[in-house]
Amino acid sequence: MGKLVVIEGLDGSGKRTLAKALTGALEARGLAVATGAFPRYEQDVHAELVRDALHGRLGDLTGSVHGMAVLYALDRRDAAEGIRADLRAHDVVLLDRYAASNAAYGAARLREPAGGGFVEWVRALEFDRFGLPAPDLQVLLRVPTGVAADRAARREVEETRDRDLYESDGGLQARCAVAYDELAAMGWVSPWEVLDGTADLRADDLVERWFAR
After folding, report:
1. Which GO terms describe its molecular function (predicted)?
2. Would you tell me the crossing angle of helices 99-110 and 65-89 to the nearest 10 degrees?
3. CA distance 75 to 47
4. N or C: which terminal CB in the chain sees fewer CB atoms within 10 Å?
């Protein structure tokens, strides 16, 4: 059975870049790697609804923190069997975002601490009720909110797409950064490791630390 590793962090923190680097370093060691990212906008109807809501196309749905959280969770529920199959067939399954994103952003929107009721509700929904595989390791890629915002703005231009309601809300992003720090400190669901997203991260060193046999 493979290890499930999740990369978490703010929009613009560099999750996709780190995932690509780790994949290359793992494969160079002869390890079989499967990758994925949430939300799965092009693969799941619940993720499509999330995108529509975040761009103001579903009326007042975005105003419901729990309603949006259920859509995010249903996307992962639909993917759960595929994740389990990937874990059986690969040494490492590497995901860009997972349930902790739901917990962090929802808590930030409600202005609750990570030890509050919403985060526990997400854990019970996604892992107990929907039966998602629990991560073996969650990696928080921490960057200052200003750096994340600048990167997200550059990506908006490069990819010719508008930032969604969450990405463009600086106050939400700042509160979400606090929520992520709290989740990591409390070891929510699994062990966490916090990395400096502004540092020169060497994927080979990380792989040596996390996956040395």
Report:
1. dTMP kinase activity
2. 160
3. 6
4. C
Give the confidence band of 168 by pLDDT, cuts at 50, 70, 90.
Answer: low
Q: Is a pLDDT exceeding 60 seen at residue 213?
A: no
Q: Where are the beta strands (DSSP E) in 14-168?
A: 33-37, 92-96, 137-142
Q: Is residue 71 packed enough to be buried (19+ CB in 10 Å), middle (13-18) or exposed (0-12)?
A: buried
DSSP string spanning 111-126? T--TTSHHHHHHHIII
Contact 53, 69 (CB under 8 A): no
Give the tokens for residue 143: 């960057």
In angstroms, the CA 181 to CA 201 distance is: 19
Q: What is the pTM of this model?
A: 0.89
| Mean pLDDT of the residues in the chain | 91
CA 3/CA 191 separation, integer angstroms? 12
- The two structure tokens encoding residue 85: 């199959």
Q: In the chain, what are the domain boundaries?
A: 3-211
Residue 210 has pLDDT above 80, yes or no: yes
- Measured CA to CA, the distance from residue 187 to residue 191 in angstroms comes to 5
In contact, 71 and 38? CB cutoff 8 Å:
no
Q: Is the pLDDT of residue 156 over 70?
A: no
In the numeric block, the tokens 């975002």 are attached to: 97
Q: Which fold has domain 3-211?
A: Rossmann fold (3.40.50)
Rounded-to-integer distance, Cα 151 and Cα 213, Å: 35
